[in-house]
Automatic annotation (TrEMBL):
<keyword id="KW-0676">Redox-active center</keyword>
<feature type="signal peptide">
    <location>
        <begin position="1"/>
        <end position="23"/>
    </location>
</feature>
<dbReference type="InterPro" id="IPR036249">
    <property type="entry name" value="Thioredoxin-like_sf"/>
</dbReference>
<keyword id="KW-0575">Peroxidase</keyword>
<dbReference type="GO" id="GO:0034599">
    <property type="term" value="P:cellular response to oxidative stress"/>
</dbReference>
<keyword id="KW-0732">Signal</keyword>
<dbReference type="GO" id="GO:0008379">
    <property type="term" value="F:thioredoxin peroxidase activity"/>
</dbReference>
<dbReference type="GO" id="GO:0005737">
    <property type="term" value="C:cytoplasm"/>
</dbReference>
<dbReference type="Pfam" id="PF00578">
    <property type="entry name" value="AhpC-TSA"/>
</dbReference>
<feature type="domain" description="Thioredoxin">
    <location>
        <begin position="39"/>
        <end position="213"/>
    </location>
</feature>
<dbReference type="InterPro" id="IPR013766">
    <property type="entry name" value="Thioredoxin_domain"/>
</dbReference>
<dbReference type="InterPro" id="IPR000866">
    <property type="entry name" value="AhpC/TSA"/>
</dbReference>
<keyword id="KW-1015">Disulfide bond</keyword>
<dbReference type="InterPro" id="IPR050924">
    <property type="entry name" value="Peroxiredoxin_BCP/PrxQ"/>
</dbReference>
<protein>
    <recommendedName>
        <fullName>thioredoxin-dependent peroxiredoxin</fullName>
        <ecNumber>1.11.1.24</ecNumber>
    </recommendedName>
</protein>
<comment type="function">
    <text>Thiol-specific peroxidase that catalyzes the reduction of hydrogen peroxide and organic hydroperoxides to water and alcohols, respectively. Plays a role in cell protection against oxidative stress by detoxifying peroxides and as sensor of hydrogen peroxide-mediated signaling events.</text>
</comment>
<keyword id="KW-0049">Antioxidant</keyword>
Length: 220
């Protein structure tokens, strides 16, 4: 247990101050990134729809039955920190797929942007759209973006942020990583309100190995 990377990263996430105390608030959209209430290890994932580049809905429940999932929420292809994270994720794609994982990277961008983005960045894993913000909201990582920030993003990056139905402000997900087993249960999570700090790829590989080992033991 001393060298368990899941424990190390869990303590690191707690040190970052992500609040997880209000279980009934996790499906709500937070007023800021610091106030999100993400789903926790051991909880079942919501079977919300995401959308492929072809505009077809897919659900996590169905996908998880095929293979365990490394699910990554990112802000969008306009975000330089997200692009760096996606590039780093590509460097460990073979390691994760050899372990039997499927990688799903989810953003609020519209489905028609996904195909060109995947080709431009030479990504081998799957990009999915959460343009209705249902997935980020259900995972407890969605938050409201101040209008001034939304305008700045539109001016600087040419991106119009999406919003959940009925919301007066645009919404974004806090960058997050969830490892989900084939029963749809979260085995690992990393959520950081500071969008400039992302999970190091080596730590993700280590967490994926331990999560897979724990799942195999549990299923015996």
């Amino acid at each position: 247990m001393k060298n368990n990377p899941l424990i190390f990263i869990a303590f690191m996430a707690l040190a970052l101050g992500v609040s997880c105390s209000k279980a009934d608030s996790r499906s709500e959209i937070a007023d800021s990134a610091d106030l999100v209430h993400p789903l926790l290890i051991g909880q079942s994932v919501p079977d919300v729809p995401f959308w492929t580049a072809e505009g077809k809905p897919v659900t996590l429940g169905k996908l998880a039955k095929q293979k365990p999932i490394v699910l990554v929420f990112y802000r969008g292809g306009w975000c330089p920190f997200c692009n760096h994270q996606l590039a780093e994720l590509q460097t460990i794609e073979k390691d994760l797929t050899k372990m039997g994982y499927q990688i799903l990277a989810v953003s609020p961008e519209l489905p028609d942007k996904l195909a060109s983005m995947k080709a431009d960045r030479a990504l081998n894993y799957t990009l999915l759209s959460d343009f209705q913000i249902e997935g980020a909201r259900a995972f407890g990582v969605a938050f409201r973006v101040e209008n001034a920030i939304s305008s700045l993003i539109k001016t600087r990056y040419g991106s119009e942020l999406q919003r959940f139905k009925g919301e007066s402000k645009a919404n974004l997900p806090v960058p997050a990583v969830f490892i989900i087993d084939q029963e749809g249960v979260i085995q690992f999570s990393y959520v950081n309100p500071n969008y400039q700090v992302r999970l190091h790829p080596e730590l993700l590989v280590a967490a994926a190995k331990v999560a897979l080992k724990d799942e195999n033991v549990r299923l015996k």
